[in-house]
Each structure stands twice: as C-alpha cells, then as structure tokens.
Amino acid sequence: MIQFDRVSKRYPNGKDALSKVSFTLPAGQLTFLTGHSGAGKSTLLKLIMMIERPTQGQVFVDNQNLNGFGNRHIPLLRRKIGMVHQNHQLLFDRSVFENVALPLIIAGYSRADIGKRVRAALDKVGLLEKENLNPIMLSGGEQQRVGIARAVVNKPPLLLADEPTGNLDPALSEEIMDLFQDFARVGVAVLIATHDLSLIARYNHRLLTLREGRLIHDGDEGEMHGS
Ligand code: ADP
Ligand code: ADP
C-alpha cells in the first residue's frame, strides 16, 4: 500500500529530516512509527500526504509513484488516505454528523449516500446515538472516535494517525487501538506515529523507529527490547 524507496528529505534551511528511508507497508497491517521529537515522523507522514515532497528517492502510494504526481493529483491521493490527528481537529460550530460528513461533501457525494455512510462510520466507532450533538459535549475519547469516523467515512485503504492517543488515558487509548486493529483486519494499511512507548509495548505490532531521520529499526516490538 505504501512503499518508500531510499527517501531523503532536506528542508530549504538545510535540515536533513529523512535520510535514505526504505520500507513497505502492506494492506491489512498495523504499524507503529516511533522516534524522539524531531526524528522525522511528521515529515514522513507529510511525504505520504504530499504536503512535502522528497528531495531524493521515491514514495509509492497504492503502487503509484508520487514523483509523477502534480498538485492536481493531490485531492485524488488524499481521498485514499484517512488522517487522524492528536487534537482531532473537529469543528465545534457543527454537529458530530456534519463533522464526519465533511470529507464526503468535499468529494461530492449525494445526500442519501452521505447519510448512509456517515451513520455506518458512526456506528463503527459506537457513536450513532450522538450524531446530533455538538462535539464539544463529548468526552476526549469520544471526540477522538469522531475524528476516526471522519477519517474512515469514505473507506480509504490507508489510515494515518499522528499521536492519536496523546491526550488519552490508557483505557481510552486501548479503545482507540481496538478500532485501528479492526480496520487493519478488514484490509486497511494503518500507520500510527507515536512516541508513547507504553502504548507500543502493549501490542505486538510491527514497529518502525526513526532516529535523526534514519530508519534504525524495522521489526516487531519484542525484537527491539530483546525479549
Ligand atoms: P517529528 O515529527 O519526529 O518530531 P519532524 O518530521 O517534525 O519530526 O522534524 C524532523 C526534523 O526536521 C526536525 O529537526 C525539524 O525541526 C525539522 N523540520 C520539520 N519541518 C521543517 C521545515 N518545514 N523546515 C525546516 N525544518 C523542518
Ligand atoms: P508537529 O509536532 O506537528 O511536527 P511542529 O511544532 O514540529 O509540529 O511543527 C509545526 C510546523 O512547523 C510544521 O509544519 C513543521 O513542518 C514546521 N517546522 C517544524 N520545525 C521547523 C523548523 N525547524 N523550521 C521551519 N519549520 C519547521
């Protein structure tokens, strides 16, 4: 689903944020991406989203080389990608339903389709009965689930999450992880950027570790800690 082939990113100020990073993420796999602040996690996600472009190397999404994509391809690319943010970036001047519907409205779906898909997504995250509330009325964990429903409402094959459990306690983090695992089980490639090592340690998923822009580890969590 995603392939990085010797990808380097140097920002205009000369900062090397990524150096010759290579890995492949297949469909149906959940992968953690970790590393200290400044290691290059956000840059890696931005290359997948085409918010930034690589200086060297190639990024493939769904077997398509993004180097061959112009700006007019970006909307089509982003339709394949669901993005979950730490602060979930919900709009507090509209309902839960309207927040989740946003990507479908932008993509030009019909009203009937929007209603059906939004309710299916809210059902998946267990929030169907809250569709008419303003998200400000919801708990932090519920708000994050609204953010996840919005990310998956158009059934993207790829789900990216940037510190999705950053503001949540362990029990709520587990709920969110259960959802991500459900999506992986039905074939979605899920990439979770986090520096929450206790979260990573609780699951036995593939782990990519960046240090100063280099991929220093690619394997399961047990390998890394020698257990
Ligand atoms: P992380 O998400 O792991 O904290 P980032 O990808 O945000 O890491 O940053 C990697 C490195 O690149 C850091 O040193 C950061 O300061 C630098 N960086 C990130 N964005 C830019 C930018 N737009 N211009 C210059 N340097 C940047
Ligand atoms: P995040 O945690 O999302 O990476 P940051 O605070 O690191 O947020 O960065 C916020 C914005 O500033 C991002 O768009 C990032 O690319 C940019 N940025 C980060 N570091 C630098 C830097 N050293 N110089 C210029 N821009 C940077």
TrEMBL record:
GO terms for molecular function: ATP binding; ATP hydrolysis activity; transmembrane transporter activity. It comes from the Bacteria. It is a peripheral membrane protein. Its main location: membrane. GO terms for biological process: cell division. Coiled coil: none annotated. GO terms for cellular component: plasma membrane. Keywords: ATP-binding, Cell cycle, Cell division, Cell membrane, Membrane, Nucleotide-binding. Residues 2-227 form the ABC transporter domain. It is found in: Cell inner membrane; Cell membrane. Pfam families: ABC_tran. Homodimer. Forms a membrane-associated complex with FtsX. Belongs to the ABC transporter superfamily. NCBIfam families: FtsE. Part of the ABC transporter FtsEX involved in cellular division. Important for assembly or stability of the septal ring. This is Cell division ATP-binding protein FtsE. It comes from Alcanivorax nanhaiticus.
